[in-house]
Amino acid sequence: MDWDNVAAEDVIEALREVEWSTPPRSFGEFFSRFAFPRSFSKWKSRLKCNLYYYRTNYFILVIFVLGLALITRPLAIVGAAFTALSIAFLNDSFAATFNEKFIRTIRHFSPHMAAKMRPPHMPVIRGRSAARKTVYVCGKPRWVFVVIFLTASLVMWFSSCGLLWVLYALLTSLVVIVLHASVRTPNLKARLNTFREEFRAVWRNYSEL
């Protein structure tokens, strides 16, 4: 795949739609080969490729750095967990899986309430290009829960006086991610994995028509 032709918006869109349950890459693979890019275009291509391929590792890295920075502030740790959950809700696969499992759990106690949490029916017109589907969580648009969890995390950070530590931790994790994605050379496995996931995405979109 030619990552030079992939825009940053396309990478963000792919991270939003990709399967969230992909396991992280092994520790040995994550820290195996490093080299400085030879040009600015090579650096941009490598950065986009690694951000997509090692997305789960980077997400775990952010959580780990936040945990270390807030280890003496339990309330701030809960706020960081809420932030991670709100970020995870931005992924279509995670939001849909969470919604399905939560409704299934509620159905055991109150089938009537579980029925109300179902998303509204969206008819699919065959042969037309469908607009971007709205992802629902517990019957509400996804952004409602993102805003709720982000607001709750900010309140907890302010209450624990840990907002400055959170900003330091996020900045540190961002710098580490950019450095790793810049010097980690893309291997053949990363390229083959990208092609395989592209094929699955195209096949999934074709089957929905």
Automatic annotation (TrEMBL):
Transmembrane segments: 52-71, 77-98, 142-159, 165-183
Biological process according to GO: vesicle-mediated transport
General function of this protein: May be involved in both secretory and endocytic intracellular trafficking in the endosomal/prevacuolar compartments.
Topology term for the membrane: Multi-pass membrane protein
A GO CC term assigned to this protein in UniProt: endoplasmic reticulum
Family, similarity comment: Belongs to the PRA1 family.
Main location: membrane
Name this polypeptide is given: PRA1 family protein
Keyword Transmembrane helix carried by entry: yes
InterPro entries hit by this protein: Prenylated_rab_accept_PRA1
Locations listed in the record: Endomembrane system; Membrane
Keyword set, alphabetical order: Membrane, Transmembrane, Transmembrane helix, Transport
Membrane in keyword set: yes
Pfam family, one: PRA1
